[in-house]
């Protein structure tokens, strides 16, 4: 081990080097332009995603005759009362995994969007598995992590741990995957088992191919999975 | 950092409407210092921090807790620095090994103990260096460093310990040379 005075010298050296960076008074204009573009791109992506969901839901409702006054639909009173929410089935949901590289791992969230026509609920924590491009399940040591709202120091979302999803809204599951050995070079697929027999949803985002580096060949690959929570973008 | 705003929704609206500049002026210097210690390169540090702010601009609407901005920024800077070194590793694997590699951090010859420590620090594996900077410079507890690095607190302890031991070897060999 390094002696105490070595540590003191190291700390002082770090402070001296850090002090070489002066206070920032000006904002680089190019950064603001890039930031605005990014915000605009995100907004556009959200609008397009919502439009796709609305169009899909409308088409589904039209097929059922809801939007065209079908004889099968009772108008008035009995239709105006919202039916009680039921647990989401896998067929109600579309999953996308959004990950970014972290130090030695990849982290992000699984976004589960309700593409069904009715409100449904998610509760608890899914069982998540990952398979290689050959279809082999990656051995994982899965641990439970806290929800993002708790990590952010925020108060619990309304109704949590039950997450109520209106049609078109999304739930989120925080994930962090570390140490994939031997190093995976091909895309992987994610499966999200909703639990309670509700079925399994496959992740579809291209980001899902992002895999962590192999840092310890003798160590297990670990996956931290959070509980369902309302998506921050919902 | 409750001084930023008092209401979450006000924070989000203002931030998206132009408070990014204010956040940059307030937080960029400290973020650049961290990136500089992680990369050893001032220009690269400034570029990484700008990238971090651009990235966070797209996520401000998702940021539920204004007080978490510091943590988000720190984590993003660490992740971007790590991604940078990961890319560099890939690039280097395509380069000829026969050519002598130029010194990565292009410093003048060592003139003292602090330069030796600085150059030694930059030669450490990125995870060891990150753990040391976050623990010793940022003074974060092991649990927070573990959260950022995606490992257990015990691993952070080990990374710091091994990094310091390796650093001492670097410094000794530089001093002998």
Question: What would your notes on this structure say?
Answer:
The complex is a heterodimer of chains A (234) and B (177). Chain A has 234 residues and is an alpha+beta fold. Helix content of chain A is 26%, strand content 28%. Chain A contains four helices and eleven strands; from the N terminus they run αααββββββαβββββ. In chain A, the strands form three sheets. In chain A, strands 2-3-8-11-6 form a five-stranded mixed sheet, with no helix packed on it. A three-stranded mixed sheet of chain A has the order 1-4-7, with no helix packed on it. A three-stranded antiparallel sheet of chain A has the order 5-9-10, with no helix packed on it. In chain A, β2 and β3 (105-114) form a beta hairpin. Chain A is globular, with a radius of gyration of 23 Å. Chain A starts with a helix and ends with a strand. The model of chain A is unreliable at 65-82 (pLDDT under 50). Helices cover 73% and strands 0% of the residues of chain B. In chain B, α1 (8-39) runs parallel beside α3 (69-94) and α6 (142-149) crosses α7. Chain B is globular and about 55 Å long. Chains A and B meet through α1, α2 and β2 of A and α1, α2, α3, α4 and α5 of B.
Mean pLDDT of chain B: 76
How many strand segments of chain B? 0
Rg over C-alpha atoms of chain A, rounded to the nearest angstrom:
23 Å
Biggest beta sheet summary of chain B? none
Question: Could you say which overall geometry of chain A the principal axes of the C-alpha atoms support?
Answer: globular
Please state the structural category of chain B: mainly alpha
Straight-line distance between termini of chain B:
48 Å
- What's the tally of helices of chain A? 4
Percent helix of chain A: 25-40%
- Please state roughly what percent of the residues of chain A sit in beta strands, choosing from under 5%, 5-15%, 15-25%, 25-35%, 35-45% or over 45%: 25-35%
Tell me the span between the first and last alpha carbons of chain A. Answer: 49 Å
Biggest sheet statistics of chain A = 5 strands, mixed
Q: Largest contact between protein chains?
A: A-B, 51 and 56 residues
Oligomeric organization of the protein chains: heterodimer
Unreliable segments of chain B (pLDDT under 50, ≥5 consecutive)?
A: 1-15, 96-110
What's the total count of β strands of chain A? Answer: 11
């Amino acid at each position: 081990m390094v002696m105490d005075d070595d540590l003191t010298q190291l700390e002082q050296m770090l402070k001296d080097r850090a002090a070489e960076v002066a206070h920032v008074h000006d904002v680089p204009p190019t950064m603001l332009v890039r930031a605005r573009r990014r915000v605009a791109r995100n907004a556009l992506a959200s609008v397009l995603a919502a439009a796709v969901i609305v169009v899909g839901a409308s088409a589904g409702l039209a097929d059922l005759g809801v939007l065209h006054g079908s004889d099968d639909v009772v108008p008035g009173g009995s239709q105006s009362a919202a039916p009680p929410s039921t647990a989401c089935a896998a067929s109600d949901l579309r999953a996308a995994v959004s990950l970014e590289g972290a130090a030695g791992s990849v982290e992000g969230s699984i976004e589960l969007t309700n593409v069904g026509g009715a409100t449904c609920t998610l509760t608890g924590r899914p069982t998540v598995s990952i398979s290689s491009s050959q279809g082999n399940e990656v051995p994982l040591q899965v641990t439970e992590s806290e929800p993002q709202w708790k990590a952010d120091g925020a108060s619990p979302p309304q109704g949590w741990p039950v997450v109520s999803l209106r049609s078109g809204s999304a739930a989120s599951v925080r994930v962090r995957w570390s140490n994939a050995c031997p190093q995976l070079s091909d895309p992987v697929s994610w499966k999200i088992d909703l639990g309670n027999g509700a079925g399994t949803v496959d992740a579809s985002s291209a980001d899902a191919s992002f895999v962590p580096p192999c840092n310890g060949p003798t160590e297990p690959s670990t996956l931290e999975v959070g509980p369902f929570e309302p998506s921050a973008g919902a | 950092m409750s001084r930023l705003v008092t209401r979450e929704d006000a924070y989000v609206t203002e931030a998206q409407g132009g408070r990014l500049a204010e956040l940059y002026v307030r937080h960029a210097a400290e973020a650049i210092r961290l990136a500089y210690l992680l990369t050893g390169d001032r220009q690269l540090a400034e570029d990484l921090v700008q990238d971090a702010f651009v990235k966070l601009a797209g996520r401000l609407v998702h940021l539920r807790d204004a007080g978490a901005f510091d943590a988000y920024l720190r984590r993003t800077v660490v992740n971007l620095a790590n991604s940078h070194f990961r890319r560099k590793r890939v690039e280097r694997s395509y380069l000829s090994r026969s050519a002598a590699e130029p010194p990565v951090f292009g410093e003048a010859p060592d003139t003292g103990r602090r330069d030796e420590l600085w150059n030694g620090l930059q030669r450490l594996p990125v995870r060891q260096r990150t753990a040391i900077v976050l623990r010793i410079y940022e003074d974060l507890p092991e649990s927070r460093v573990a959260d950022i690095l995606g490992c257990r607190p015990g691993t952070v302890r080990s990374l710091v310990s091994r990094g310091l031991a390796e650093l001492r070897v670097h410094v000794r060999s530089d001093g002998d040379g």
